[in-house]
Structure formats: C-alpha cells, structure tokens
Specification:
Length: about 400
C-alpha cells in the first residue's frame, strides 16, 4: 500500500513539473506582469527547450551527477527543501538556502545579495563554484556541447553557430530563456485581489491580508502594485537573520573581507564557502557599511512550498518567520537586535490569531501548478514526496523533469 501511494505521488509530481513549464510558456498569468526579455536574447520555443536540457544536464559538474535542477528541483518548487543550505558535488555544503528560480525572471538582481545583474550572468557561477557543480572552469561544458550530436544540432538551429563557435554566451542565454518561462501567478490571492473573486480566499487569509498590509507592515518591502504583485521591492534590508551570529566579530570581519576582495578573492566563492563571509550580506558586494547583513527582499509567491526560509534557511516554518518579525528582528524574543537592523523592522505586537491569519495569507500565494505540492507538504507525512524525487533526481536520465515522465 505504501508503494502504491508513493507511485501515485510520483505520477502527480511528474505531471506538475510539466504543467508548470508548458503553462508558463504561454504568457503572463493573473497578478504578474509580462516577462522582461533582453533585446539580445529573444525567447524562441527551440531555445527554451535547449535551455531546459542544459538546466537538467548532470554532466556539467565535476562528479557528473549535479545539474542546476539538483538544487532547483521542479518537484520542490524549483528549490531543494527541506535542505537548510544547498548541497552540491560530493554532498558539499554551501552556506545559503537555495531560493526558487520561479519568477526570478522579474528580479532586478540575482542571488540573496544581488551580486549578479541578470539571469545570463547568474548561470555562469554555479558551474564553477567549488561547493556547487565544482568545475575548474567552463571548458568541460563547451567540450560537451561542441561534440554531443544532439547539442551540436540544437545550437546550430537556435543560434546559427557551428559547433566550434559555441561559447558560454549561447549556453547561458538558452538557460536564461528557459528560466524566463518559470513564471507563475494566478494564486488564490491573485484571483481575490486582481480577479475580483471574493470567494478565492478563506476568511482567515483575508484577515491575514489585512495584517500583511497594516499592522505587520510586510507590504512596505514585499510590495503589491495596482495590477501586479511581485512581493519584492528588489532592494536589500537587514531584517536580523544570520548577522546576529557574527555580530561580535564584525569590526574585524568586514575590513578583512575588503582586503581579501582587493587582492582578487572571488566573491561568489567566498560567500558560498565561508559561513561568516556569507553573513556580511550585501556589504560583500557594495562595500557599504549600511548594507551589512542586508539581503534581497524575497518574492513570497509559492512560499508555502519552499521551506525552510531565509538566506541561511534558519527559519523552519512560516510561523517561525512571523514570530521573527513579531519579535522585531530576532528569533528569540529576548535577544538583542543587531546594530545594522533596518528601520522598517520593529516589534509588531500581533495576537496569536493575527499570526495564524498572516500564515494563512502566505499560504494563499501558491500558484495552481504548485497547489498539489503544497497540499502534499501540508497533509501527507512530509517525507512522502521527497523520498521518490530524491531517487529520481539521482537517476542519470536527463534530470528530474524528464526522468519522471509517466
Ligand atoms: C548546489 C546547489 C545549486 C546548484 C547546482 C545550482 N544552484 Fe542556483 N542557487 C543555489 C543557491 C544556494 C543560491 C543562492 C546563492 C546566493 O544567493 O548566494 C542559488 C541562486 C540561484 C538563482 C538566483 C535566484 C534569486 O532569487 O536571486 C538562480 C536564477 C539560480 N540559482 C539558477 C541556477 C542555475 C541556472 C544553475 C545551473 C547552472 C544553478 N542555479 C545551480 C543553489 C544551486
Ligand atoms: C524591511 C523590509 C521587510 C519587511 C518589513 C518584511 N520583510 Fe520579509 N523579507 C525581507 C528580506 C530582506 C528578506 C530576506 C532576508 C534574509 O534572507 O536574510 C525577507 C524574507 C521573508 C521571507 C522568507 C523568504 C524566503 O524565500 O525564504 C518571508 C516568508 C517573509 N519575508 C515574510 C514577511 C512577512 C510576513 C512580513 C510582515 C510581518 C515581512 N516579511 C516584512 C524584507 C522585509
């Protein structure tokens, strides 16, 4: 009986993965704007299909078993929960929680600290980060795409490039094009707020929306506009996560990091391999003291399926997140706040009911393609979906999306 249930879940997961990709490619949904596409990298169906294959190709890693989808798994909302921080080649641990790539097409900068300007640039880094895909440089990727007959034909068809002329520019352009299809709106909240369907939200979620807008002041950073909501101001704030761990040593850590940077230390490598450097946040990118411990405001779309939360994965549940904000930027109410805390973070004095309502609102931000993933997380034993998908992710055939075709 257990085996049957697992098999049914795998089938459900597989269908979801495909629905997400196929549905999203057709255009913007309720609550999200059209996807911004750079003039020099127009979307085409063939390029998107190529990008999806590249995203799922495990050969682009030092051990041959880690694709982008290893940490951005379609069956886990394009993240890797319940891992606290990402696990790359040889199960090496990074310092940060894998964010979803869903709706990352809209972000003004990429990574928790915004160190990358666009999806094309972002895709260069994981391949060569020692705790992610671990390649010494990009040459092994080019060796594969210039010789694998299927890739040779596709790069020729999509970019008009002969095999020996294919570069990382085309590889990252195709990946970015695929990622630009991973957009999703049309959540219960969208149907309620933008679609005028008063029955789309439960009474508790409607009350939670009010807390989100007013007493909780969440909307001041997780923005909602007249006709769309990306739930991020695309800015950086210190909300008291992680930085508290290095608080006592900042006076020494910050200048040492700047010195290392001046001698050419790679920021991407430093922040993902050194847990203390990671907590410097946006400061590591801009060298600006004001931005110590500041991270990019996350989108809250599909948040219910990508636990644990925050750049360091330190908050396990949405209730924990709400408690953290309610305490005014500390996880344990009696802890002192850090010196660089954003002025927008203060104790909220929420009642237990208001906290429950706010969580219900956050849970109403899940797009229909991912509703079943949310239901599985909530209703079944939490391990139910992760057991089979872990196995599938490790299977050699083309990554999880392909590998789970029913
Ligand atoms: C070992 C796990 C791992 C692998 C493999 C991996 N990523 Fe990530 N990804 C992460 C983590 C962790 C972050 C956040 C790092 C940070 O912010 O410093 C991230 C961030 C991102 C972001 C930025 C999202 C945002 O909200 O700013 C995108 C886009 C992304 N990855 C795409 C990719 C692509 C494309 C690949 C393959 C080329 C890839 N990732 C491979 C773990 C991984
Ligand atoms: C001052 C700006 C600001 C305010 C106000 C704010 N947030 Fe955030 N929020 C952020 C930033 C920045 C992050 C990422 C922080 C990090 O990872 O260290 C974040 C992260 C989160 C996350 C985790 C996202 C993820 O992908 O892990 C949730 C959930 C969240 N906020 C909900 C809320 C709620 C609910 C409120 C209102 C009670 C709120 N936020 C108020 C800036 C803000």
């Amino acid at each position: 009986m257990h085996a049957i249930r697992i098999r049914r879940l795998v089938a459900a997961c597989a269908v979801l993965g495909w629905a997400a990709v196929a549905g999203a490619a057709t255009g913007a949904a309720l609550g999200i704007p059209p996807v911004p596409v750079p003039a020099d990298n127009p979307q085409t169906p063939a390029k998107i299909a190529l990008g999806e294959q590249l995203f799922n190709d495990q050969r682009f890693s030092a051990t041959g078993d880690v694709a982008c989808s290893h940490c951005h798994d379609p069956q886990k909302g394009f993240a890797d929960g319940p891992l606290v921080t990402a696990e790359g080649i040889g199960k090496l641990k990074g310092t940060r929680n894998s964010p979803t790539v869903l709706n990352s097409a809209y972000f003004a900068s990429l990574f928790w600290d915004g160190r990358s300007p666009d999806l094309e640039d972002q895709a260069l880094h994981p391949f060569v980060n020692p705790v992610e895909m671990g390649l010494p440089n990009h040459d092994p990727i080019l060796a594969i795409v210039r010789t694998d007959p299927a890739y040779v034909a596709q790069f020729e068809a999509v970019f008009g490039k002969r095999s020996e002329d294919v570069t990382m520019r085309e590889v990252t352009q195709a990946i970015a094009s695929f990622e630009r299809t991973l957009v999703s709106g049309d959540s219960p909240f969208d149907r309620y707020y933008f679609g005028g369907d008063r029955s789309a939200l439960s009474a508790t979620a409607v009350r939670g929306f009010d807390v989100f807008l007013n007493k909780g002041r969440c909307v001041s950073c997780h923005t909602i506009e007249q006709d769309r909501a990306l739930f991020t101001d695309n800015r950086f704030h210190n909300i008291g996560v992680g930085v508290n761990r290095i608080q006592a040593d900042i006076g020494e850590l910050a200048p040492r990091f700047l010195e290392a940077k001046a001698t050419g230390v790679d920021v991407d490598r430093a922040v993902l391999t050194d847990p203390r450097a990671s907590e410097l946040g946006r400061f590591a990118v801009t060298d600006t003291l004001d931005e110590l411990g500041a991270f990019k405001t996350s989108t809250l779309r599909n948040i219910a399926i990508t636990a644990p939360f925050m750049h360091d994965g330190s908050l396990a549940t949405l209730r924990d997140v709400v408690d953290h904000y309610n305490n005014g930027g500390v996880t344990v109410a009696t802890d002192p706040v850090n010196d660089f805390l954003s002025g927008g973070i203060r104790p909220l004095d929420l009642t237990e009911q208001e906290k429950t309502d706010l969580v219900a609102f956050l849970e109403a931000l899940t797009s229909p393609q991912y509703a079943a993933q949310q239901a599985q997380k909530a209703a079944l034993d939490p391990a139910a979906c992760s057991t089979p998908t872990n196995k599938l992710a490790a299977a050699p055939a083309g990554g999880p999306t392909k590998g789970t075709q029913p």
